[in-house]
Amino acid sequence: MAIFKIKNDAYAEIEQRFFCIHKKREVRHRIIKDGRSTYVTQCIHCGNTSTPIKKDQIKQDIEDLPEYDDRLEQQWRKLKSLAYDAIRKAIKPQLQAEYQAYLKSSEWGNLRRKVFERCHGTCELCESTSAEQAHHLTYERIGQEKLSDLIGVCIPCHNLIHGRE
């Protein structure tokens, strides 16, 4: 069984469902968080957005471009987020089973060993107790973690991280 196949298949289905198939897109002016201007194409139906476009690639007068529709994009993102939440809830037992199987794999064992080598067997939080567990700082690359995604921790610190007593 491939690592995290159930999750990957479910998430791929969501990505496919939310992939923009509409033909009508417009080049729009967008103000990003730090106040700078950027230019993107945005679907006028679902709000899906392209990566930024260089000014010299825009064929129309920049002053005449419509403003970016944040509301439309936020609506699209909210629907997509709800779909992810629903699928995670629906497949939670299978996800937990996949994760537990991963924790028993040789791949995880090798990575865990490297974490303990890096921290010299000492908890990377309290720095006073032996590290006994490897903790994920992110699950973004689960199954393909970078060493920097993990820290070695003692059991009390690991419990503290997860809010357990």
Walk me through what this model shows:
By secondary structure, the chain is of the alpha+beta class. The protein has 2 domains: 86 residues, no CATH class; 56 residues, no CATH class. It is built from 5 helices and 4 strands; from the N terminus they run αββαααββα. The strands form 2 sheets. Strands 1-2 form a two-stranded antiparallel ribbon. α1 runs antiparallel to α2. The chain is elongated.
In short:
This protein is α+β, with helices and mostly antiparallel strands. It is 40% helix and 13% strand.
Largest sheet: 2 strands, antiparallel
Describe the global form: elongated
Poorly predicted regions: none
Provide the structure class.
alpha+beta
Question: Domains counted in the coordinates: how many?
Answer: 2
SSE arrangement, N to C: HEEHHHEEH
Q: How is this fold's topology laid out?
A:
Elements: H1 5-17, E1 25-31, E2 37-43, H2 70-90, H3 92-103, H4 106-118, E3 133-136, E4 150-153, H5 155-161
Antiparallel strand pairs: 1-2, 3-4
Helix pairs in contact: 1-2
Comma- or semicolon-separated keywords:
two-stranded antiparallel ribbon; two-stranded antiparallel sheet; alpha+beta; 165 residues
